Amino acid sequence: MVCTQHLLLGLIGEDHDPKGFLGSGIKIDEAREVVKSTWHSESDSIDASESVSKEESGFSPSNVPFSISTTRVFEAAVEYSRTLGHNFIAPEHIAIGLFTVDDGSVDRVLQRFGVDGDHLAAIAVTKLQGELVKDGREPSVESKGKREKSFTKKAAALRSSEQSRDKSALAQFCVDLTARASEGLIDPVIGRHSEIGRIVQILCRRSKNNPILLGESGVGKTAIAEGLATSIAQAKVPVFLLMFLFMLTLRKLCFANLRRRKRVMSLDVGMLIAGAKERGELEARVTTLIREILEEGNIILFIDEVHTLVGSGTVGRGNKGSGLDIANLLKPSLGRGQFQCIASTTIDEYRTHFEIDKALARRFQPVMINEPSQEDAVRILLGLRQKYEAHHNCRFTLEAINAAVSLSTRYIADRYLP
């Protein structure tokens, strides 16, 4: 698979400037070593990240797949070419796209050289405008200023999107499970492929595309949502969940028709409710959260223990159920299909809160999550054995794992596997 770091190495290799890549002093041999060391620090083995041979990979040079980030870079390069008034794609266009929509891997390489991506992007723009001058096609001062201003604002909007989220309701009340999965902070989900496949199938529907996971506490409902986030991060789901198309007005100075990956955001209900003392404050938080989800457009909201939003989160008249609860604030957007939601709750809570509210129940498609069998529980523990061994600094034998599952099933009757 061609990743953004491969793309960076290709651009550096094609730039024959004596001063290095875009005058930054970066040489191809040095860059290759830095990329290798970066891969080595991010994986268990450098061999797992290095390019493999044709026989090992099964790909020929004509059909090597691109990663999601690499695809986004090329789409951004096309868009920048149009923005600058060009009818061609040069390496500099690709470099501009690489430095502005990078997933962070290229930025880590540049940091090792003490180079800023925005600075290199500005150099690339200057170089492209210099080529127009040589061809006698220098843009007017007015159009040149507009294009530079447009580029600067677009780059700033894209590069500062993460920082701006820090002050948003999404950042305050939600956790990005897809980002955590990309960083390797989520344990692998083992033996739940059928359940995850069912969730993916529901999410890809045109209507009634909000799954609700039903199962007893401890059977792994939250882990399945994390497994979906991992599948999206690893591009193991249909294209519908990997990308979406959106149109933004020129006022926002962002790309039109730019593709971005879906993200699974887990709502922290406790943080959402905590500290909401004034009348209408909780309503304001929820409506702000919904507005930001709609603006982002690529959010799949995961609400664990969703029954806590029904009745107990009453707004306006105490907790007696006569006011407007949080779930009712979500109903209109869910009913119109403006965003998607994955919920989880127990079977008893579903019967208590959802079956009596037919309008709310219609917006969700139930997915039963059963307790795994002892054999499945053993496979799950075997898959996680290395992580637990590293944490506890000890070794777990197969006999110990089998005994743990068997004895917990026999003597811990009030809890569920795994």
UniProtKB/TrEMBL annotation:
The keyword Cell inner membrane does not apply. Gene3D superfamilies: 1.10.8.60, Clp, N-terminal domain (1.10.1780.10), P-loop containing nucleotide triphosphate hydrolases (3.40.50.300). InterPro entries: AAA+_ATPase, ATPase_AAA_core, Clp_N_dom_sf, Clp_R_N, ClpA/B_CS1, ClpA/ClpB_AAA_lid, ClpA_ClpB, P-loop_NTPase. Pfam families: AAA, AAA_lid_9, Clp_N. SMART domains: AAA. Residues 136-151 have a biased composition (Basic and acidic residues). It comes from the Eukaryota. GO terms for molecular function: ATP binding; ATP hydrolysis activity. The keyword Chaperone applies. Transmembrane segments: none annotated. One of its GO terms (cellular component) is cytoplasm. Keywords: ATP-binding, Chaperone, Nucleotide-binding, Repeat. GO terms for biological process: cellular response to heat. Coiled coil: none annotated. Residues 136-160 are annotated as: Disordered. Residues 1-131 form the Clp R domain. This is CHAPERONE PROTEIN CLPD CHLOROPLASTIC. It comes from Salix koriyanagi.
